[in-house]
Amino acid sequence: MHTGSIGMGANNCNVDKKMTSIDSLYRKEDGHILIEIKLSSVLHLFNSFDPAPFYTKELDRDASDYIVDVVRDFPQKTQFRIVVYLPASILCTQEAQKIPEAIRNHFKYMVLVQDRKFRERSIYGKFTLVVGLSFLAIAMIASQAVAETFSNFPLVRLIAYALEVAGWVAMWEPVTVHLYQLWPIVKQKKIYEKISQMDIDVRPYP
Fold this sequence. Notes:
Largest sheet: 5 strands, mixed
Strand content: 5-15%
Distance between the termini: 23 Å
Order of helices and strands: EEEHEHHHHE
Number of strands: 5
Structural class: alpha/beta
Number of helices: 5
Radius of gyration: 26 Å
């Protein structure tokens, strides 16, 4: 259970987002948009169910989603800095000092996950393309053969047309994969890469 606060910028501002620019909802420092997270314990930053060692633990979903959502809301060239606020009593502990490394490790792992998703989806896309083109070729040949052989029968011509339509329908999946499913994976990977290279500060409560 969280006792910390995820998102000290936009989430705590009673501002109509439709009436102001997105960057006015966040504090800035040295030209960087601050992604601020306030915690009462280091452990609140991480997924408590992840059995991995501390520095390679998965981030808590709320924290991870908040960071990703902020980056996604801004233009690609925007510069960010992640600032994690902790009580002064735990600020100098080894766990607190390793927070920047742990956050970077999490998003570097997410980059690898996106790479794997892309490879798997790309392989599937190539498979569906081969299947779709093969079926389209067979359907077109069959359609033409039926139409030429039984040209005097209107019902047979309808069947020939249906075969042609079925062939093009078979191309829907490979077209969907290559045009609409691969690029979001690449875009998400770029976001994770950007976060994994950000400046990350651990500071006492403001």
